[in-house]
């Protein structure tokens, strides 16, 4: 048998990735560290995987060290994450020593392409840190997650950044702060920005956007601040994502195509509020040769979480290339944790979704995702899907039964499988059927809870999944959303040629809806 040193390195990597898919990330990295100590050869194989994504939590113990990461290991880092959630009052003022250390360590990371700042409760990214990021020659992605600027003294200008030259290499820029804690939970403005924070954030984002607008290909920004930022020219922008509350002023989102002619993926993940639902839809008088119409006809993926005020997007347009359309509300249930518990997505009714589909026919669409609350138009909506999207291959439905107390109320099995069978090319189906009688809050240490869950999962496979597999001849895979006490995940089956079901194991990290 050949020794490990004589084996193809790609084979070793494939074996490691197979192990990664079947275990948790923490346990996988722990096993890799142990494996790297067994031989020099395996150390050389494991280190690039261990340090490929490197996260440093910044606290007092790190401040006392000479270096953030030994220079011999810097060569393996491609993604650097700085988590400052446990700093206490360390970041009350600009931490100059941290900026200097980061600039030094970045200069040794010859493969670094992504920097991510996370969970800063004290302040947003400060000028010295941004300068260290922007002058890193290999960096193509800068992401800022839940680290907002809050105070007027945090404002900076292009001159304060003191960059040695114009920066034009950044391909992806993310400022992901969809909700804030400026207002009390009981306030109608809860989750929104107040005037001070909004002014600081917008001022700094205008500076950064002016630096990257010529090169950026993917942009992710808060919806509340998107209106002024849309005024920049984005000649290379292909993917735009906005998240959070709708802007207070009436905003026609379709104008983004005037300044971004290369847009292919647009994700408008905004919260539907009573105010946004009452906003009048702007009047449109756009010719077919207008840049907006030409841009929309080139779209490949479109997400609209709040359909109100998006009339032009949802009218009958020549979507020649659109492959994916999502009408799932924002925020999804898995991210509305304790901090954002008062921010809930408004799920549209069957009638509201049907009114959208009645104006749309997209022959190129292959993937469609929707969420709706059952009302008398339920069956009409399902029947409309195959005529609106004749080539649909992937379908994801989240169907909610308001006030249902038992699985028999508005039972989907009566007609749903046969109606979806009319979608001639459907191969992959995912269903969230909102079972009121599913077991809740299981304690796996209690035998009765464990037994109830096994019984319910058997019901999902033998009564629900089998019904759809038998009714839809073209189906290849089927997923049904299941819920435990603290997570949601997909039970997924492969449909065999005999219309039987074979369980498809899911990675632990791929369990969230």
From TrEMBL:
Listed Gene3D superfamilies: Ribonuclease Inhibitor (3.80.10.10)
Domain of life: Eukaryota
SUPFAM superfamilies assigned: RNI-like (SSF52047)
Protein name, entry field: F-box domain-containing protein
Organism phylogeny: Eukaryota, Fungi, Dikarya, Basidiomycota, Agaricomycotina
């Amino acid at each position: 048998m050949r020794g490990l040193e004589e084996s193809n390195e790609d084979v070793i990597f494939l074996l490691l990735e197979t192990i990664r898919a079947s275990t948790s990330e923490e346990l996988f990295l722990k096993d890799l560290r142990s494996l790297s100590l067994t031989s020099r050869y395996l150390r050389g194989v494991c280190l690039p995987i261990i340090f490929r994504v490197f996260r440093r939590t910044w606290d007092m113990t790190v401040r006392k060290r000479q270096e953030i990461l030994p220079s011999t290991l810097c060569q393996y880092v491609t993604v650097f994450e700085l988590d400052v959630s446990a700093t206490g009052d360390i970041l009350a003022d600009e931490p100059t020593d941290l900026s200097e250390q980061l600039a030094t360590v970045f200069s040794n990371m010859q493969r670094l392409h992504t920097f991510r700042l996370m969970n800063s409760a004290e302040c947003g990214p400060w000028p010295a840190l941004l300068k260290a990021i922007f002058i890193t020659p290999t960096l193509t992605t800068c992401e800022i997650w839940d680290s907002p600027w809050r105070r007027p003294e945090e404002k900076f200008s292009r001159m304060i950044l003191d960059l040695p030259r114009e920066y034009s290499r950044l391909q992806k820029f993310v400022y992901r702060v969809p909700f804030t804690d400026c207002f009390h939970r009981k306030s109608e403005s809860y989750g929104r920005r107040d005037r001070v924070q909004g002014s600081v954030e917008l001022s700094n984002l205008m500076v950064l956007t002016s630096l990257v607008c010529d090169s950026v290909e993917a942009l992710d920004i808060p919806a509340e601040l998107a209106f002024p930022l849309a005024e920049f020219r984005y000649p290379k922008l292909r993917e735009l994502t906005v998240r959070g509350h709708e802007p207070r002023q009436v905003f026609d989102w379709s104008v983004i195509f005037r300044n971004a002619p290369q847009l292919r993926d647009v994700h408008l993940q905004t919260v539907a509020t009573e105010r946004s639902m009452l906003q009048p839809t702007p009047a449109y008088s756009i010719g077919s040769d207008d840049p907006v119409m030409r841009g929309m006809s080139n779209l490949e993926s479109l997400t609209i979480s709040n359909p109100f005020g998006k009339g032009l997007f949802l009218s009958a347009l020549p979507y020649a290339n659109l492959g994916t359309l999502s009408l799932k509300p924002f925020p999804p249930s898995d991210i509305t944790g304790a901090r954002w518990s008062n921010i809930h997505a408004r799920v549209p009714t069957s009638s509201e979704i049907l009114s959208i589909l009645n104006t749309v026919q997209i022959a190129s669409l292959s993937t469609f995702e929707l969420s709706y609350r059952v009302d008398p138009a339920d069956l009409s909506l399902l029947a409309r899907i195959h005529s609106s999207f004749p080539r649909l291959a992937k379908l994801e439905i989240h169907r909610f039964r308001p006030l249902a107390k038992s699985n028999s109320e508005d039972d989907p099995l009566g007609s749903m499988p046969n109606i979806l069978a009319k979608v001639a090319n459907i191969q992959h189906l995912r269903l969230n059927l909102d079972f009121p009688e599913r077991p809740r809050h299981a304690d796996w240490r209690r035998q009765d809870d464990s037994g109830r869950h096994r019984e319910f999962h058997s019901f999902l496979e033998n009564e629900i999944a089998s019904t759809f597999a038998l009714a839809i001849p073209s189906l290849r895979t089927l997923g049904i959303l299941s819920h435990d006490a603290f997570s949601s995940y997909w039970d997924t089956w492969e449909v065999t040629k005999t219309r039987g079901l074979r369980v498809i194991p899911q990675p632990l990290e791929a369990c969230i809806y």
